[in-house]
Amino acid sequence: MATSKTLYATLLGGILLASGLPNVYAHSVDFRDAYRNGLDITLKRHSEHNWHREEKRKGPVIALVRHSEHKKHANYRHVEQPKILPMFSLDTDYEQVEFFKGSYATITPFSILAAGKYEFSLTDLGFPNVLKDLGAAVTTSGNKLGQPLGTGSMIFDAQPGKYYLSLFANTFEARDLGLFGLNLHALSGTGVPTPSAVPVPGALWLFGSGLLGLAGMLRRKS
């Protein structure tokens, strides 16, 4: 009898072992996976939170950087293609006054007719605002003869030919107005032809000697 009870218990335990343990094992695996997934989600949310917080912090920084770049662009404007003005001929004097807004840049070809010394002057007239940048250059197609920056002047030697006058000017702010003037002229003596000795024709010598002879004859008769 005891032997049959032991056998029954053994069979029942085997059945419970065969049916119960897999459920317990499966439950533990599900719990472990859920825990791992939950941990991953938590870490992901924490990372996203840090990312959003960093982006929120960067917002004002980016705004300041963009504002700084905008101011830099406004303050360091440049004209990509200067205007080409009509050519002029420098006989004795050339003057120009420019009233502009923001920035100004031109290239003006001109011709010099007489060899000599020339003076170029540039002036910031300070109306209604003082200029931030002002400069000019007198050049040929391959050489620079002078480059005054700001209010100033230069003297250069030139031969007859073609030259170029390049100008640029900037105000401190894009909306500011500026005014400058320039003068280009020949120095004293330049362009005045040098007198040359003209040979006296032989006929004039004969005419003069004839007059002298006639005067001598008249004296004798008197």
What would your notes on this structure say?
With 222 residues, the protein is of the alpha+beta class. The protein folds into 2 domains: 1-76; 83-186, Jelly Rolls, CATH 2.60.120. Helices cover 42% and strands 32% of the residues. The strands form 2 sheets. Strands 1, 2, 4, 6, 7 and 9 form a 6-stranded mixed sheet that branches. Strands 3-10-5-8 form a 4-stranded antiparallel sheet, with no helix packed on it. A hairpin with a 4-residue loop joins strand 6 (133-139) and strand 7. The termini are far apart.
Percent range for helical residues? 40-55%
Largest sheet: 6 strands, mixed
Proportion of β residues?
25-35%
Number of strands: 10
Determine the N-to-C terminus distance: 203 Å
Q: Unreliable segments (pLDDT under 50, ≥5 consecutive)?
A: 192-198
Which geometry do the CA atoms define?
rod-shaped
Task: Report the top-level CATH class of the largest domain.
Answer: Mainly Beta
- What is the structural class? alpha+beta
What is the helix tally?
2
Which sequence of SSEs, written as H and E, runs from N to C? HEEEEEEEEEEH
Number of domains: 2
Cα gyration radius (Å): 50 Å
* CATH architecture verdict of the largest domain: Sandwich
Q: Can you describe this structure in just a few lines?
A:
This protein is α+β, with helices and mostly antiparallel strands and 222 residues long.
Task: Summarize the SSE layout with pairings.
Elements: H1 2-75, E1 83-84, E2 88-90, E3 93-101, E4 103-112, E5 116-124, E6 133-139, E7 144-146, E8 152-158, E9 161-170, E10 177-186, H2 202-221
Parallel strand pairs: 1-4, 2-4
Antiparallel strand pairs: 3-10, 4-9, 5-8, 5-10, 6-7, 6-9
